[in-house]
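User: C-alpha coordinates for this one?
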Amino acid sequence: MDTASTAWMLASTALVCLMVPGLALFYGGMVAAKSVPNMITLTFGAVTLVGCIWVVYGYSAAFGDSIGGAGILGDVTEYFGMSGIINDDPNAVIPLSVFAAFQALFAALTRSAPSPAPTATRWPKPSSSPNGSNSCTCGGR
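Assistant:
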Protein backbone atom coordinates (compact mmCIF):
# COMPACT_ATOMS: atom_id res chain seq x y z
CA MET A 1 0.00 0.00 0.00
CA ASP A 2 1.17 3.48 -0.84
CA THR A 3 0.47 5.65 2.20
CA ALA A 4 0.64 8.92 0.26
CA SER A 5 -1.94 7.74 -2.28
CA THR A 6 -4.16 6.42 0.50
CA ALA A 7 -3.92 9.74 2.37
CA TRP A 8 -4.77 11.65 -0.80
CA MET A 9 -7.80 9.45 -1.48
CA LEU A 10 -9.00 9.89 2.12
CA ALA A 11 -8.61 13.67 1.80
CA SER A 12 -10.44 13.61 -1.53
CA THR A 13 -13.23 11.53 0.00
CA ALA A 14 -13.55 14.06 2.81
CA LEU A 15 -13.74 16.91 0.30
CA VAL A 16 -16.45 15.11 -1.68
CA CYS A 17 -18.27 14.55 1.61
CA LEU A 18 -18.26 18.33 2.12
CA MET A 19 -19.99 18.73 -1.21
CA VAL A 20 -23.18 17.13 0.14
CA PRO A 21 -24.21 19.99 2.46
CA GLY A 22 -22.91 22.45 -0.12
CA LEU A 23 -25.22 20.96 -2.73
CA ALA A 24 -28.13 21.02 -0.27
CA LEU A 25 -27.56 24.70 0.52
CA PHE A 26 -27.07 25.54 -3.16
CA TYR A 27 -30.42 24.00 -4.03
CA GLY A 28 -31.95 25.61 -0.97
CA GLY A 29 -31.01 28.99 -2.44
CA MET A 30 -32.88 28.27 -5.66
CA VAL A 31 -36.28 27.70 -4.08
CA ALA A 32 -38.65 29.72 -1.95
CA ALA A 33 -37.78 30.06 1.72
CA LYS A 34 -40.55 27.68 2.77
CA SER A 35 -39.07 24.94 0.54
CA VAL A 36 -35.49 25.07 1.85
CA PRO A 37 -35.99 22.28 4.45
CA ASN A 38 -37.55 20.16 1.71
CA MET A 39 -34.53 20.65 -0.56
CA ILE A 40 -32.10 19.79 2.21
CA THR A 41 -34.13 16.69 3.08
CA LEU A 42 -34.29 15.60 -0.58
CA THR A 43 -30.54 15.99 -1.01
CA PHE A 44 -29.58 14.14 2.15
CA GLY A 45 -32.26 11.52 1.52
CA ALA A 46 -30.92 10.82 -1.96
CA VAL A 47 -27.38 10.54 -0.62
CA THR A 48 -28.53 8.10 2.07
CA LEU A 49 -30.57 5.97 -0.33
CA VAL A 50 -27.84 5.75 -2.96
CA GLY A 51 -25.26 5.02 -0.27
CA CYS A 52 -27.29 2.05 0.94
CA ILE A 53 -27.82 0.77 -2.60
CA TRP A 54 -24.10 1.20 -3.31
CA VAL A 55 -23.18 -0.91 -0.26
CA VAL A 56 -25.63 -3.69 -1.10
CA TYR A 57 -25.02 -4.17 -4.82
CA GLY A 58 -23.92 -0.95 -6.54
CA TYR A 59 -20.20 -1.49 -6.11
CA SER A 60 -20.50 -5.01 -7.52
CA ALA A 61 -22.55 -3.81 -10.48
CA ALA A 62 -19.97 -1.13 -11.26
CA PHE A 63 -16.69 -2.90 -10.51
CA GLY A 64 -17.44 -6.63 -10.37
CA ASP A 65 -16.35 -9.10 -13.01
CA SER A 66 -18.21 -8.56 -16.26
CA ILE A 67 -21.32 -10.60 -16.94
CA GLY A 68 -21.09 -12.20 -20.37
CA GLY A 69 -17.81 -10.45 -21.14
CA ALA A 70 -19.54 -7.34 -22.51
CA GLY A 71 -18.17 -5.05 -19.80
CA ILE A 72 -21.50 -3.30 -19.29
CA LEU A 73 -22.64 -4.73 -15.94
CA GLY A 74 -20.65 -6.42 -13.23
CA ASP A 75 -21.60 -9.53 -11.31
CA VAL A 76 -23.73 -8.18 -8.43
CA THR A 77 -22.95 -11.20 -6.24
CA GLU A 78 -19.17 -10.72 -6.33
CA TYR A 79 -19.03 -7.94 -3.71
CA PHE A 80 -22.64 -8.19 -2.49
CA GLY A 81 -22.92 -6.22 0.73
CA MET A 82 -19.25 -5.20 0.42
CA SER A 83 -18.10 -8.76 1.07
CA GLY A 84 -14.49 -9.23 0.08
CA ILE A 85 -13.67 -5.52 0.19
CA ILE A 86 -11.80 -5.72 3.48
CA ASN A 87 -9.51 -8.49 2.24
CA ASP A 88 -7.38 -6.20 0.13
CA ASP A 89 -4.82 -7.12 -2.44
CA PRO A 90 -1.38 -6.49 -0.88
CA ASN A 91 -0.14 -5.18 -4.23
CA ALA A 92 -2.89 -2.56 -4.49
CA VAL A 93 -1.94 1.11 -4.32
CA ILE A 94 -4.95 2.12 -2.19
CA PRO A 95 -7.33 -0.01 -0.11
CA LEU A 96 -10.48 -1.10 -1.89
CA SER A 97 -12.61 0.19 0.99
CA VAL A 98 -11.28 3.73 0.50
CA PHE A 99 -11.90 3.52 -3.24
CA ALA A 100 -15.43 2.18 -2.63
CA ALA A 101 -16.22 5.04 -0.22
CA PHE A 102 -14.93 7.63 -2.71
CA GLN A 103 -17.00 6.19 -5.55
CA ALA A 104 -20.07 5.85 -3.31
CA LEU A 105 -20.04 9.55 -2.48
CA PHE A 106 -19.81 10.50 -6.14
CA ALA A 107 -22.63 8.10 -7.02
CA ALA A 108 -24.76 9.68 -4.31
CA LEU A 109 -23.97 13.23 -5.43
CA THR A 110 -24.72 12.34 -9.03
CA ARG A 111 -28.18 11.12 -8.05
CA SER A 112 -28.94 14.08 -5.80
CA ALA A 113 -27.94 16.61 -8.46
CA PRO A 114 -31.31 16.67 -10.32
CA SER A 115 -33.41 16.37 -7.14
CA PRO A 116 -34.86 19.92 -7.00
CA ALA A 117 -36.23 19.92 -10.53
CA PRO A 118 -39.83 18.91 -9.73
CA THR A 119 -40.09 20.96 -6.54
CA ALA A 120 -38.42 24.25 -7.46
CA THR A 121 -40.97 27.03 -6.91
CA ARG A 122 -38.88 30.17 -6.83
CA TRP A 123 -40.45 32.06 -9.72
CA PRO A 124 -43.89 33.52 -9.05
CA LYS A 125 -46.84 32.35 -11.05
CA PRO A 126 -48.37 34.92 -13.38
CA SER A 127 -51.29 36.64 -11.75
CA SER A 128 -54.59 36.90 -13.52
CA SER A 129 -56.32 40.19 -14.07
CA PRO A 130 -59.53 41.13 -12.19
CA ASN A 131 -61.69 40.24 -15.18
CA GLY A 132 -60.42 36.61 -15.15
CA SER A 133 -58.21 36.73 -18.23
CA ASN A 134 -54.46 36.37 -18.10
CA SER A 135 -53.83 39.16 -20.58
CA CYS A 136 -52.68 42.62 -19.54
CA THR A 137 -55.49 45.13 -19.29
CA CYS A 138 -53.02 48.03 -19.69
CA GLY A 139 -55.11 50.42 -17.61
CA GLY A 140 -58.37 49.68 -19.44
CA ARG A 141 -57.17 50.63 -22.89
